[in-house]
Amino acid sequence: MTQLMGRPILEVSGELGGRPWPADLLAGVRTALVGLAVVGVPVLALWVATPYADSGAASATRLAGALWLLGHGAPVLRGDTDAPLTVTPLLLGVLAVVQLYRAAARVAARRGPRPRWGGPAAVWAGYCAVAAAVVLHCAGAGLFRTRVLPDLVVVGLLAGLATAAGARSARAADRAAPPLLPGRPLLDRLPVSLRPSGAAAAVRGSALAAGAGLVAAGGVLVAVSAVLDAMAGGGRGMAVLGRGPAALVGLLLLAVVLLPNAVLWGTAYALGPGFAVGTGTVVAPGGTALGPVPEFPLFALLPAEGPGGWRVAALLLPALAGVVPAVLLGRAAAGPRRPAEAGVGVEAGGGDGDGGGDGAASEPWPPAATVVAVLAAALLTGAAVALAGWLSGGALAGGRMARLGPAPWWTGSAAAGWFALVAVPGALLVRRRALRLAAPEVVLDAVEEAAEGGGAGAAGGAPPAAHARLAGQLRRSALMLRARAYAAVLRLGGRTPESGD
């Protein structure tokens, strides 16, 4: 009885005991099966509901497996001609990454002894085992066929990155654990005149704000296009959807899965370079050149061929998206709201450094350092937009449909250029205004210290007479301002100051 009661206690996960590696392996298997079910259940339901389906259940499961692999970015071959299909449904990809991230974070956060092959590595292995089974199932002859080695490599790489990110987040939450990458940030290694001290968090925050603004701009364009298409006498998309209930539901589900791709294409459109819907085509604010496109609801939202006209106004959206990052970087460049509390001097240049070495992180950045921080955030934003544009595009078939989506390098360069064009002058203006607002607070702090300290202020390096003169000047300025305001009120009321009441 004692052994039966004590045995489960030794297997409890957490601080009382370890977790066997098969449990972590099954966690990875469960994560993969949940994602596969999200794709497979609607596909099988549509196969059952289609009255004229002439294929068996194996074809439906192969289609579900191919869509699940496409969500990871794995290439798939389509048809008897082995046409490449590489457009990644980003909604499925985000779902897979989030599931792996959370599973790895939960496993890595558990304390206690752990076997050598357990933890996030076992989660990754279990996920890849399910992926290998799906790839082998879809490798035979059929409408969709996988490429075994490239698909396994792509799924394994994506699963490894998501699992590592989840494990790292759990390690970062554990304050007792040492940092994975110790060292100084890259910006803190620049010369003093170009160094935005402690700017890493501000640069990341402004880049995230710019990315969110650009994605919102793409979403606005997609929504406006859908409204305009619906108002144009029924819209081109309504004719595409009139193919029966099963086809209607299938097309709508596929459109929802590809909606993040469409939003990123809208972002590329707003940035200026636009995107392609086939070789030799362009969809941009300056003009649209299209040929025949596949009948699909999202393709029905494309603008008509010809010059851009009023659509050039879409270029204002990236400019608006750069306002918030400019404000964030400008406030960070100005330093704390009351710099006197940090024990450093407050001048517009902020670079003389007479406040000591440990107070350098609280000093306002010089203008050149502010520009460096803005350019660093612009490069980070451009790299993220280029990666997102590359992931959102691909090939729909061979020949003319071999190129869809934005050009990554042009789109990333446009994003970085718009960011720098708006945020450089904006951050400098916000910094200058913040420093001007902070200067009177510093003077008032000096007056209050003089009034409280009295003669003891001489020990701090400033004579009492200087504080008295400064207090008198401030008092006279306040009285003059009050008198002028009172005179302005009387003048607006139709009276003069000499007339009295």
What does this structure look like?
- The structure is a single chain.
- The N and C termini lie far apart (101 Å).
- 60% of the residues lie in helices and 4% in strands.
- Helix 7 (200-231) crosses helix 10.
- With 501 residues, the protein is mainly alpha-helical.
- Strand 1 and strand 2 form a beta hairpin.
- The strands form 3 sheets. It has a 3-stranded antiparallel β-sheet with strand order 2-1-3, covered by helices on one side. A 3-stranded antiparallel β-sheet has the order 5-6-7. The protein has a two-stranded antiparallel ribbon with strand order 4-8.
- Class by alpha and beta content: mainly alpha
Low-confidence stretches: 1-17, 176-183, 338-361, 454-462
- Rounded to an integer in angstroms, the radius of gyration calculated over CA atoms is 31 Å
Classify the helix fraction into a percent range.
Answer: 55-70%
DSSP helical segment count: 15
Looking across the biggest beta sheet, what order are the strands in?
2-1-3
Please write the string of helix (H) and strand (E) elements: HHHEEHHEHHHHHEEEEHHHEHH
Morphology call: globular
Q: What is the mean predicted local confidence, pLDDT?
A: 77
Please report the total strand number as a whole number.
8
* End-to-end Cα distance: 101 Å
Share of β-strand residues: under 5%
Largest sheet: 3 strands, antiparallel
